[in-house]
From TrEMBL:
<protein>
    <submittedName>
        <fullName>ABC transporter substrate-binding protein</fullName>
    </submittedName>
</protein>
<dbReference type="InterPro" id="IPR001638">
    <property type="entry name" value="Solute-binding_3/MltF_N"/>
</dbReference>
<dbReference type="InterPro" id="IPR015168">
    <property type="entry name" value="SsuA/THI5"/>
</dbReference>
<keyword id="KW-0732">Signal</keyword>
<dbReference type="GO" id="GO:0042918">
    <property type="term" value="P:alkanesulfonate transmembrane transport"/>
</dbReference>
<dbReference type="GO" id="GO:0042597">
    <property type="term" value="C:periplasmic space"/>
</dbReference>
<dbReference type="Pfam" id="PF09084">
    <property type="entry name" value="NMT1"/>
</dbReference>
<comment type="similarity">
    <text>Belongs to the bacterial solute-binding protein SsuA/TauA family.</text>
</comment>
<feature type="domain" description="Solute-binding protein family 3/N-terminal">
    <location>
        <begin position="43"/>
        <end position="276"/>
    </location>
</feature>
<feature type="signal peptide">
    <location>
        <begin position="1"/>
        <end position="22"/>
    </location>
</feature>
Length: 341
């Protein structure tokens, strides 16, 4: 395996090799208890859609080898988007994804037997910036708005923002896919767009360059299901003990990130290649949304999530939990989270 410095920089093109690991590397039993797998080490392929500051607890768990205590070896894979990651989970080349709930739900609607089983990443980190002189979302009516990609979470959130400010989400403004991070900044600087969405690390650069903030995601939701851990239902049934051990390592990562801001910021410097100052800013913006107990947002904020999906045609109405959530891991954690493998 590569050194820890590069372990979360594995390219998605290596997924074929990971498939063989996923097929034979997990040495779990199918019991429902929280005990170990006869002392054997389970290899679990874990995918994320892209590197992001919100993943600091996961980076820490891997960098500090917090999974080893529970006899788990994580094979990390970074993709170029959540849709491709969902396909990899469906195909069996990734065991567990930690990614957007919306992308998993789209796969469920396509009759993929997947379930979310853990939350804990409930940040509202998106913001929208405009050209200098643009002072409000309402003033952006009829103008060009940049998002990472048409059909992405930033696209859906932007159209929901339009509705909140009296702009027709379908044709009240022109939404353009410009790419992520550097491309968003370049598009705004070159005046290819009048406004753009931005995650927090991109937002810091735009703020520093004097572009005005038009709105923040936190304006309409205190929390949001930013990422969930999900897997095929068959994997959760057959490897329940290993999944519990994986979660024990993840919980340790959450707890370390919450208790040691410097360790979390240092992980972001290494994995995100950002300055220590911006890493600390990102930590401050994300820490309030990390929950070691894997909770999802409350009912009011989840209602906003479902409204966004309805507005954008992702689903006709809120889906019952029984269709997409396996609550048994969250509900039973008191029995196994402190156990030693």
């Amino acid at each position: 395996m590569a050194s820890t410095k590069h372990r979360w920089a594995v390219l998605a093109t290596t997924i074929a090799a990971s498939a063989a690991v996923a097929a034979c590397g997990s040495s779990s039993d199918s019991s429902s208890g929280g005990g170990g797998s006869s002392g054997a080490t389970a290899t679990i392929t874990v995918g994320i859609p892209t590197d992001d500051a919100s993943y600091a607890p996961l980076y820490l768990a891997e960098d500090r080898d917090l999974f080893a205590k529970y006899h788990v070896k994580v094979k990390p894979v970074v993709f170029k988007g959540g849709a491709d990651l969902a396909k990899a989970v469906a195909g069996g080349s990734v065991d567990v994804a930690v990614s957007a709930l919306s992308e998993m739900l789209l796969a469920v609607q396509q009759h993929q037997a997947m379930k979310a089983f853990w939350g804990g990443y409930n940040q509202t980190t998106f913001a929208w910036f405009g050209q200098k002189g643009l002072t409000s979302v309402e003033a952006g009516k009829g103008k060009k708005w940049g998002v990472t990609k048409i059909g992405s979470s930033t696209d859906f959130l932007t159209r929901y923002l339009f509705k909140q400010h009296g702009i027709n989400p379908t044709n009240g403004a022109k939404v353009i896919g410009v790419g992520s991070s550097a491309a968003q900044i370049a598009a705004l600087k070159a005046k290819q767009v009048d406004a753009t969405s931005a995650s927090n690390l991109t937002a810091y650069q735009l703020e520093d360059q004097g572009f005005p903030v038009l709105a923040k995601q936190s304006d309409f939701a205190k929390e949001y299901p930013n990422h969930v851990a999900y897997a095929k239902e068959s994997y959760l049934q057959q490897h329940r003990t290993d999944v519990q051990h994986l979660l024990q390592g993840m919980i340790a990562g959450f707890e370390l990130a919450k208790s040691d801001p410097k360790a979390a910021a240092d992980a972001l410097v290494k994995h995100m290649h950002v300055s220590p100052q911006n890493a600390q800013r990102a930590y401050t913006d994300n820490v309030g949304g990390w929950y070691a107990d894997g909770r999802l947002p409350g009912a009011a904020d989840m209602n906003v999530f479902w409204q966004i999906g309805v507005l954008n045609g992702q689903w006709p109405k809120a889906m019952p939990e029984s269709q997409w959530l396996d609550k048994s891991f969250i509900d039973s954690q008191a029995k196994w989270k402190g156990a030693t493998a």
